[in-house]
Amino acid sequence: MKENRIYGLSRLNLSAVDFVSTDETRAALRGLHVNVKDKKVVSTNGHILTITALEELDKTEVVKEIADNSRPVKDSFTIPPETVKTIRHSLPKKSNIPILDYAFVESVVRDNGYETVTISSHNLESYKPVRFRHDALDFPNLDSTIPDTPPDVVVSFDPDLMGKLCKWWSKHVQKDMYQKRIDLECWTKDHKFRVVDPETKTTVVFMGVRRPD
Questions:
Q1: Can you give the pLDDT of all 213 residues of the chain as single tens digits?
Q2: pTM
Q3: Among 42, 90, 109, which Cα is nearest to 31's?
């Protein structure tokens, strides 16, 4: 990382905390992992893996107080979920200035198995640093979970419709906490897919689904 560059955590990066593990026996997965080497932010609960891009910005684009306090970051680190919540709350609720939608990684110091990390934001009125210290745990290599071959079938659907379906399905259809899942049955030639719950005999058919050109 060059001296004049700084890593910015976007609202999208921070929102991935929704998918970190809540299992206390899996400490390495109980946080948002910032992979500096590959410039990505990773979270997983063992069932869902999210990967979002970590942006590297020029310090001249950043509020001077943050730029002056920042140091080159070489070590990856993990942000505990409660700290992510604090960082998200430090960002302006609404802003017409895109750079204010980021929290910036000022410094990461490793010492005797611990990480001390400073992440800061600014609303043009006040400087808001968030500092935390915790065990420096090695985040597992999850590259093998991503298939390296092309998918068998690709289906495009409206994410808003899928979100509504999942919310409705979870609330009203499948109420057994151990059986919450949706199986998609696809007919790509007919541009349709179906989800069925045998227990309640509920069927939802999506029409107009298409394969990408």
A1: 778 999 999 999 999 999 999 988 888 889 999 999 999 999 998 888 899 999 999 999 999 999 999 999 988 999 999 999 999 999 998 888 999 999 999 999 988 888 899 999 999 899 999 999 888 778 888 777 777 787 776 767 777 877 888 788 777 776 665 556 667 777 767 767 777 777 767 777 766 555 555
A2: 0.79
A3: 42
Q: Give the start-to-end residue ranges of the domains of the chain.
A: 5-141, 159-207
Pick the CATH number of 5-141 from 3.10.150.10, 3.30.565.10, 3.40.50.880, 2.40.160.60: 3.10.150.10
Asked if residues 20 and 31 have their Cβ atoms less than 8 Å apart, the reply is yes
Q: Of the candidates 210, 171, 167, which has an alpha carbon nearest to the alpha carbon of residue 187?
A: 210
